[in-house]
Amino acid sequence: MAFIDTHTHLFSDEFKEDIDSVIDNAIKNTVTKFYLPNVDESSYEEMMRLSSKYPSNCFPLIGIHPCSVTQNYHQQLDWVKQKVTANKQQKVFHGIGEIGIDLYWDKTLEKEQKKAFAEQIEIAIEFDLPIIIHTRNAFNEAFEIVSAYKQTSLKGIFHCFSGTITDAEKVISLNTFKLGIGGVLTFKNSGLDKVVELLDLKHLVLETDSPYLAPTPYRGKRNESKYLTLIATKLAEIKKVSVDDVAAITTKNAIEILGN
Questions:
Q1: What is the pLDDT of residues 116-168, one digit of tens each?
Q2: 100: nearest Cα among 64, 61, 147, 59
Q3: What is the distance of C-alpha 123 from the center of its chain?
Q4: Residue 1 banded pLDDT, cuts 50, 70, 90
Q5: Which positions ≥6 away from 66 have C-beta within 8 Å?
Q6: Which end of the chain has fewer surrounding CB within 10 Å, N or C?
């Protein structure tokens, strides 16, 4: 039994003092692969350093998080495309992400976020890479942009999904996207358990989004990839299947989207 954490920021400052033990503990807890979505230019070097140190476990993605999008987003996207182009032959990057739309904190750059999202999708299509989508208070806006590319080769994951059954069905209707399920599933009264109960496991992948959104009973503390098994256990309980089944199916789903 082995799990894939499809979304974790192990390169963040929260892990700088003990990252080796964090990775070792996760592997001992049967979480053996970690996909690292980039945030922006500032996170790139540490992400690549970690990926070089653990080439069999850590797999980098490249992109600009919507909260990092600026008015000069064209320059930011030029940087993304330059990195993808330079590393194309070695297939260094395993996706474009995390990208999307976030209207929770500030709507000032909504137009720029939407344009940056669409243009990064086009980079993903050009280089045949999956995308990792971040949406916060912006599911409908993000879905509208993604659905415009339904007839292309685009595939990916709606990261940290916590929407309604209607939202889930919209994503599933795209045929080439999975729903990223994380610690929110374990939160009391989140309602995500009721949605997931209605979904086939073939549509789901697991993630931690560490160091954020630690599952119960560690809610409010630093999240780690080893806690992915707590999410899997909760999912198995909801779906009335074994944890081994959850591991097998979600791992297959992750490979379908992300490779490896």
A1: 999 999 999 999 999 999 999 999 999 999 999 999 999 999 999 999 999 99
A2: 64
A3: 17
A4: confident
A5: 99, 100, 101, 102, 113, 116, 117, 134
A6: C
